[in-house]
Design goal:
This protein is of the alpha/beta class. The chain has 15 helices and 20 strands. Among the domains are: 28-128 and 209-235 and 263-497, TIM Barrel, CATH 3.20.20.80; 135-194, Oligo-1,6-glucosidase, domain 2 (Alpha-Beta Complex), CATH 3.90.400.10. It has helices spanning 2-5, 18-25, 56-69, 104-116, 135-143, 209-224, 269-282, 302-306, 320-323, 329-345, 362-365, 382-397, 477-480, 487-500, 567-573, and strands spanning 36-40, 73-76, 80-81, 93-97, 120-125, 155-156, 179-183, 189-194, 229-232, 292-295, 316-317, 351-353, 402-406, 511-512, 519-526, 529-536, 542-543, 551-555, 599-600, 604-609. Bound molecules: alpha-D-glucopyranose. Residues 39-439 form the Glycosyl hydrolase family 13 catalytic domain.
Length: 610
């Protein structure tokens, strides 16, 4: 069955070719500890064939942009064969590329091209559930109750006199019950099956050895193709509490991420990841460069997330506590300290993230009241949101550990909050009382160039799968390139500085400096240099005291500090003309300011060299 569904390469995979391996040899084995990893959402990054949908050849063609931006790795959301009930997080064949995104050869080309540019490639692995069009599930349904294939999922008879009630009270993350009733091959009402997400996403039963075997094989398939790692979707969900016990009350979504749930963060998941780590370690490259896994694990506490990162388990986990923290100095300082302590205890790097394909973009969140949380439809104060977003990226990139960027944040893109209902595709939008239904707003295709949609996302003509706003011409990559005040050039400069000054991502701690209320100031020291980051999170200019000899390196705002000349322009100008931007290009310190007590503008971050 596997053979029938999987695609095959027409040539040897990337990992088997000497030239591709040679490109990554020079890297450190533990490259991931301070890597900046850029999330590509393939539907919305670049459309190579003009059908309005992003695809793998489109991504490959744009890889030089990512190299020039200065990131270390690319994580691609799923591009596998899928009916797209949940934008590809419903996988029908884990070894095949969906025709909408291209072919397996296109994936191989992408990996080779990335490696040739010195970029790592991380693919999304979806082990909690598959698609209802996966061969196993189709056969399980077809064969009816008693089929051994049903044991690979969670099929149960219903409760009630005629089995008309779901087997337990679990609710789907997307809204409604987490169970759907089947119809027997003879047309009578049948058993129910569990789906923590959409009904088209049946959960695997991880008590079954065939499920373990299958995913070990899938890991090897993509490792053999040359991928450098995996993002593990719903990593906290694979194991369910024995007996699938009731929770006892409704509104369970409000408890997610804060309370223990019988379907999330069960201790049994750790044994699975120990097994996967052994496979990943087998594949370490010739110079010791490691293949990695990053967990999407929503856990009640950061300490519980750290358990996934013990030395024999996964390498990183997304820091959702950080993502969920509002623009508040005390709250940010607390989450930074808690993260560094919890991750340090298991020897793992902390990670930092502000946006992804599931939440409202932070340039919009930061312009809205914090009570609105991470799922919003209010446009908010655009100017304020962008100003804070620019400060937030300098804060994030100055922290020790690994940083995740979501495509388009380097352009300062806002969420699209006014998408008409008829174009929406997020499955949770269609399920009442769902998780959110707002996720389409952060998934609108990227503007690359030009005055009108599709802004170079694909060949002119056809509309993109989600419509782009009229106002995005000014936000395109082409429009921002070369403008020292643009958000794109701020990101390029910040990433270039981060490459040049190892103390930014390295290490495991920050030294907090005394600062007025509402201001964060910390110092990072490394052999041969020191660095200070100051962030004014208040809405007033604030005077801060800096260590002697501090010189401004980079600021998030143009009006950032009294008596300090904008350093962004300097950083940009010092790159080699016509050469790759941000790839270790020289970014000299701005020597004009020796500011011991500068006044920092509202909602502004500044990097200083000492
Ligand atoms: C993860 C993904 C999300 C998806 C869900 C179900 O949370 O990030 O996009 O809907 O898993 O696979």
């Amino acid at each position: 069955m596997k053979e029938a569904m999987s695609q095959h390469l027409t040539h040897a995979p990337s990992s088997a070719t000497a030239d591709a391996v040679g490109e990554v040899d020079a890297e450190r084995g533990d490259w991931w500890r301070d890597a900046v990893i850029y999330q590509v959402y393939p539907r919305s990054f670049a459309d190579g064939n003009g059908d309005g949908m992003g695809d793998l050849p489109g991504v490959t063609a744009r890889l030089p942009y990512l190299r020039d931006l200065g990131v270390d790795a690319v994580w691609l959301s799923p591009f596998y064969a899928s009916p797209q009930a949940d934008a590809g997080y419903d996988v029908a064949d884990y070894r095949a590329v969906d025709p909408m995104f291209g072919t397996l050869n296109d994936a191989d080309d992408l990996i080779r091209a990335a490696h040739a540019l010195g970029l790592k490639v991380i693919v999304d692995l979806v082990p909690n559930h598959c698609s209802d069009q996966h061969e196993w599930f189709k056969r399980a349904l077809h064969e009816g109750p008693g089929s051994p294939l049903r044991e690979r999922f969670h099929f149960r008879p219903g409760k009630g006199a005629a089995g008309e009630l779901p087997p337990n009270d679990w609710e789907s993350i997307f809204g409604g019950p987490a169970w759907t009733r089947t119809v027997n091959p003879d047309g009578t009402p049948g058993e129910w099956y569990l789906h923590l997400f959409a009904p088209e996403q049946p959960d695997f039963n991880w008590d079954h050895p065939a499920v373990h075997d299958e995913f070990r094989s899938v890991l090897r398939f993509w490792l053999d193709l040359g991928t450098d790692g995996f993002r593990i979707d719903v990593a906290h969900g694979l194991v369910k509490a024995a007996g699938l016990p009731d929770i006892g009350h409704a509104e369970q979504l409000s408890l997610l991420g804060t309370a223990a749930m019988p379907y999330f963060d069960q201790d049994g998941v750790h044994e699975i990841y120990r097994g996967w780590r052994r496979i990943l370690d087998e594949y370490a490259g010739p110079a010791g460069e490691e293949r990695i896994a990053v967990a999407e694990a929503w856990t009640p506490t950061i300490e519980r997330a750290a358990l996934y990162l013990r030395p024999d388990e996964l390498h990183q986990a997304f820091n959702f506590e950080y993502l969920s923290t509002s623009w508040d100095a005390a709250a940010l300082r607390k989450v930074i300290d808690t993260s560094l302590t919890a991750m340090g205890a298991v020897g793992a790097p902390a990670t930092w993230v502000l946006s992804n394909h599931d939440v409202t973009r932070h340039a919009t969140r930061f312009g809205n009241p914090p009570e609105l949380g991470t799922q919003q439809r209010e446009p908010g104060d655009r100017e304020l949101g962008l100003r804070r977003a620019r400060a937030a990226i300098l804060l994030m990139l100055a922290l020790p550990g690994s940083a995740y960027l979501y495509q388009g944040e380097e352009l300062g893109l806002p969420d699209v909050t006014d998408l008409p209902d008829e174009v929406r595709q997020d499955p949770s939008f269609f399920r009442a009382a769902g998780q959110d239904g707002f996720r389409d707003g952060c998934r609108v295709p990227i503007p690359w160039s030009g005055d009108e949609p599709p802004y170079g996302f694909g060949p002119a003509g056809g509309p993109s799968w989600l419509p782009q706003p009229k106002s995005w011409a000014a936000l395109s990559v082409a429009a921002q390139t070369g403008d020292p005040a643009s958000t794109l050039e701020l990101y390029r400069s910040a990433l270039a500085v981060r490459r040049q000054r190892q103390e930014l991502g390295a290490g495991t701690a920050v030294t907090w400096l005394d600062a007025p209320e509402g201001v964060l100031a910390f110092r990072r020291d490394a052999p041969g240099g020191g660095f200070v980051c100051t962030v004014n999170l208040t809405s007033e200019p604030v005077r801060v005291r800096l260590p002697a000899g501090s010189r401004a390196l980079l600021s998030s705002g143009a009006d950032y500090a009294e008596g300090v000349r904008p350093a962004v322009a300097d950083a940009t100008a010092d790159r080699p003309a016509g050469g790759p931007l941000g790839v270790g290009g020289p970014v000299t310190d701005n020597p004009v300011h020796d500011g011991i007590e500068p006044v920092i503008a509202a909602d502004t971050a500044i990097w200083w060299a000492i």
